[in-house]
């Protein structure tokens, strides 16, 4: 049986993923702001160092997998924090724990992105570049400015929409770039992303506590229903299995068909010379 770290352990998809792993007999090291074995704020450099240190301690230096699930939504009124939590958090954690994953016979990492990366038209290219360069302070400052691209009526209910969609966009790009470098690929550590669509968790339902109607939702829901945390946890588990070989750098949409409905002709994209 393996040892797996799960961030976002206390709620939603993280809690569901931890339950699936525990059910399969694995040891789960939970990380969250509350109700977890390791309490750490992944939105800060100090919190990330604490998390890495304590995961290494709890796993005795060898990890079979990480599910980096902790994150926030576009309704947070702090675009800078959204970038720090959703992008710099998982990246620092995965980079810090890569050596521990490499010590496993079958190290696996999976991160939770979002289909907002490709279905929300407010991706800020400067923010993408700053994130990929690892410039957290500049990215945090720019994230606030990036919001101006979104119309006021969108910002009214999603005050961090641009930072949110951009954080998930650049996370997917980071996964594709990173998974194929020798330190990951040749060490046998597989790194993939899941891009969920609308999933019924506290993050999505918010303070109202009631689910909206899928047929009048802001994005198409071809299956006529929202996702449930267990449906994401299923794929998290598959990516973390030792048997999940020969797939790395992939981004799997688990979104009830939303991305396919909105952009049917945008994927695959033909290679150009
Ligand atoms: P949730 O709110 O139920 O769970 C998120 C967990 O992350 C919470 O336990 C929270 O305490 C933890 N967390 C938040 N900020 C943190 C920080 N700074 N440090 C440590 N832990 C922190 O939300 P849900 O829906 O399960 O979200 C999981 C992931 O899925 C997030 O990355 C979110 O952005 C992403 N996502 C969610 C979608 C949805 O419709 N629910 C759609 C697409 C992506």
Helix amount = 40-55%
- Remind me, CATH topology? Rossmann fold
Sequence of secondary-structure elements: EHEEHEHEHHHHHHEHHEH
- Through-space gap between termini: 47 Å
Q: What number is the mean pLDDT?
A: 97
Corresponding CATH superfamily:
NAD(P)-binding Rossmann-like Domain
SSE topology:
Elements lengths: L2 E5 L4 H12 L3 E6 L5 E2 L5 H15 L5 E4 L10 H24 L5 E5 L3 H4 L5 H8 L3 H11 L5 H6 L3 H19 L2 H4 L4 E7 L5 H4 L23 H12 L10 E4 L3 H5 L11
Parallel strand pairs: 1-2, 1-4, 2-3, 4-5, 5-6, 6-7
Descriptive notes:
With 273 residues, the chain is α/β, with parallel strands linked by helices. It has a single domain, classed as 3-Layer(aba) Sandwich (Rossmann fold). The chain is 45% helix and 12% strand. The chain is built from twelve helices and seven strands. It has helices at residues 12-23, 45-59, 79-102, 116-119, 125-132, 136-146, 152-157, 161-179, 182-185, 202-205, 229-240, 258-262; strands at residues 3-7, 27-32, 38-39, 65-68, 108-112, 190-196, 251-254. A seven-stranded parallel sheet has the order 3-2-1-4-5-6-7, sandwiched between helices. The N and C termini lie far apart (47 Å). The model has no long low-confidence stretch (mean pLDDT 97).
């Amino acid at each position: 049986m393996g040892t797996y770290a799960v961030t976002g352990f206390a709620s939603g998809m993280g809690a569901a993923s931890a339950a699936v792993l525990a059910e399969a007999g694995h040891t789960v090291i939970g990380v969250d702001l509350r109700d977890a074995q390791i309490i750490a704020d992944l939105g800060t450099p100090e919190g990330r160092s604490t998390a890495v240190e304590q995961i290494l301690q709890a796993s005795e230096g060898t990890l079979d997998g990480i599910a980096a699930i902790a994150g926030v939504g576009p309704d947070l009124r702090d675009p800078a924090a959204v970038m720090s939590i959703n992008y710099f958090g998982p990246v620092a954690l995965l980079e810090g724990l890569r050596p521990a994953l490499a010590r496993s016979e079958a190290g696996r990492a999976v991160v939770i992105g979002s289909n907002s990366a490709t279905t929300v038209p407010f991706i800020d290219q400067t923010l993408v570049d700053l994130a990929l360069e690892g410039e957290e302070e500049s990215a945090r400052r720019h994230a606030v400015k990036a919001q101006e691209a979104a119309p006021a009526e969108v910002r009214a209910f999603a005050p961090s929409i641009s930072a949110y969609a951009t954080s998930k966009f650049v996370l997917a790009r980071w996964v594709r770039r990173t998974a194929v470098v020798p330190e990951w690929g040749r060490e046998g550590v597989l790194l993939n992303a899941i891009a969920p669509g609308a999933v019924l968790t506290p993050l999505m339902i918010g303070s109202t506590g009631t689910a909206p109607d899928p047929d009048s939702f802001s994005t198409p829901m071809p299956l006529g229903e929202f996702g449930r945390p267990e449906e994401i946890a299923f794929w998290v588990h598959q990516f973390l299995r030792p048997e999940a070989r020969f797939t790395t750098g992939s981004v799997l949409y688990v979104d009830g068909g939303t991305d396919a409905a909105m952009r049917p002709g945008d994927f695959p994209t033909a290679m150009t010379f």
